Amino acid sequence: MAHGKPFDEESSGKYVPLRDEDDPRLEMFNRPLPCFGCGIGWFSLLLGFVCPLLWYYAAILYFCNYYQKDPRERGGLAASATAALICTVAIIIFVLVMYV
Protein backbone atom coordinates (compact mmCIF):
# COMPACT_ATOMS: atom_id res chain seq x y z
CA MET A 1 0.00 0.00 0.00
CA ALA A 2 2.97 2.26 -0.47
CA HIS A 3 2.62 5.41 -2.56
CA GLY A 4 -1.19 5.27 -2.54
CA LYS A 5 -1.46 2.16 -4.70
CA PRO A 6 -4.29 -0.22 -3.69
CA PHE A 7 -2.24 -3.34 -4.44
CA ASP A 8 1.30 -4.40 -5.21
CA GLU A 9 2.53 -4.70 -8.79
CA GLU A 10 3.50 -8.31 -8.20
CA SER A 11 0.02 -9.26 -6.97
CA SER A 12 -1.53 -8.19 -10.31
CA GLY A 13 -4.91 -7.21 -8.93
CA LYS A 14 -5.25 -9.90 -6.26
CA TYR A 15 -6.04 -9.03 -2.69
CA VAL A 16 -3.08 -8.68 -0.38
CA PRO A 17 -3.46 -9.95 3.21
CA LEU A 18 -3.47 -7.21 5.82
CA ARG A 19 -0.57 -7.15 8.22
CA ASP A 20 -0.52 -5.23 11.47
CA GLU A 21 2.79 -5.15 13.31
CA ASP A 22 1.13 -3.71 16.44
CA ASP A 23 -1.44 -6.48 16.85
CA PRO A 24 -0.80 -9.74 14.93
CA ARG A 25 -4.11 -11.18 16.24
CA LEU A 26 -5.95 -9.07 13.66
CA GLU A 27 -4.71 -11.40 10.91
CA MET A 28 -7.10 -14.11 12.11
CA PHE A 29 -10.04 -12.01 10.84
CA ASN A 30 -8.84 -12.26 7.24
CA ARG A 31 -10.48 -15.66 6.94
CA PRO A 32 -14.20 -15.92 6.12
CA LEU A 33 -16.73 -16.98 8.71
CA PRO A 34 -17.98 -20.59 8.67
CA CYS A 35 -21.44 -21.51 7.35
CA PHE A 36 -21.29 -19.79 3.99
CA GLY A 37 -19.69 -16.63 5.37
CA CYS A 38 -22.49 -15.59 7.71
CA GLY A 39 -21.27 -17.29 10.90
CA ILE A 40 -22.65 -20.05 13.07
CA GLY A 41 -24.99 -17.75 15.02
CA TRP A 42 -26.80 -16.19 12.07
CA PHE A 43 -26.90 -19.51 10.24
CA SER A 44 -28.47 -21.13 13.33
CA LEU A 45 -30.94 -18.26 13.64
CA LEU A 46 -32.15 -18.70 10.07
CA LEU A 47 -32.32 -22.50 10.14
CA GLY A 48 -33.85 -22.37 13.63
CA PHE A 49 -37.20 -21.48 12.11
CA VAL A 50 -37.16 -24.96 10.56
CA CYS A 51 -35.49 -26.76 13.46
CA PRO A 52 -35.61 -24.73 16.73
CA LEU A 53 -33.02 -26.97 18.36
CA LEU A 54 -30.38 -25.00 16.44
CA TRP A 55 -31.30 -21.93 18.49
CA TYR A 56 -30.49 -23.85 21.66
CA TYR A 57 -27.21 -25.07 20.16
CA ALA A 58 -26.21 -21.48 19.37
CA ALA A 59 -27.34 -20.34 22.84
CA ILE A 60 -25.05 -22.93 24.41
CA LEU A 61 -22.18 -21.66 22.26
CA TYR A 62 -23.01 -18.09 23.31
CA PHE A 63 -23.04 -18.86 27.03
CA CYS A 64 -19.83 -20.91 26.71
CA ASN A 65 -18.11 -17.81 25.25
CA TYR A 66 -17.49 -19.32 21.83
CA TYR A 67 -17.30 -15.76 20.49
CA GLN A 68 -13.95 -15.33 22.27
CA LYS A 69 -12.42 -17.27 19.36
CA ASP A 70 -13.93 -14.88 16.83
CA PRO A 71 -15.78 -11.76 18.09
CA ARG A 72 -17.62 -11.46 14.75
CA GLU A 73 -19.79 -14.39 15.91
CA ARG A 74 -21.15 -12.59 18.98
CA GLY A 75 -24.13 -10.82 17.37
CA GLY A 76 -25.50 -13.91 15.65
CA LEU A 77 -25.05 -16.10 18.71
CA ALA A 78 -26.82 -13.51 20.87
CA ALA A 79 -29.69 -13.32 18.38
CA SER A 80 -30.04 -17.10 18.43
CA ALA A 81 -29.97 -17.14 22.24
CA THR A 82 -32.76 -14.54 22.25
CA ALA A 83 -34.78 -16.63 19.80
CA ALA A 84 -34.28 -19.68 22.04
CA LEU A 85 -35.55 -17.67 25.04
CA ILE A 86 -38.63 -16.47 23.13
CA CYS A 87 -39.32 -20.01 21.92
CA THR A 88 -39.03 -21.38 25.46
CA VAL A 89 -41.43 -18.75 26.84
CA ALA A 90 -43.90 -19.45 24.04
CA ILE A 91 -43.77 -23.21 24.73
CA ILE A 92 -44.32 -22.65 28.47
CA ILE A 93 -47.29 -20.37 27.82
CA PHE A 94 -48.74 -22.88 25.34
CA VAL A 95 -48.38 -25.74 27.82
CA LEU A 96 -49.94 -23.69 30.64
CA VAL A 97 -52.89 -22.68 28.48
CA MET A 98 -53.50 -26.22 27.26
CA TYR A 99 -53.24 -28.01 30.62
CA VAL A 100 -54.40 -25.46 33.17
UniProtKB/TrEMBL annotation:
Organism encoding this protein: Dioscorea zingiberensis
Keywords from the UniProt entry: Membrane, Transmembrane, Transmembrane helix
Regions that span the bilayer: 40-64, 76-99
Name recorded for this polypeptide: 60S ribosomal protein L18a-like protein
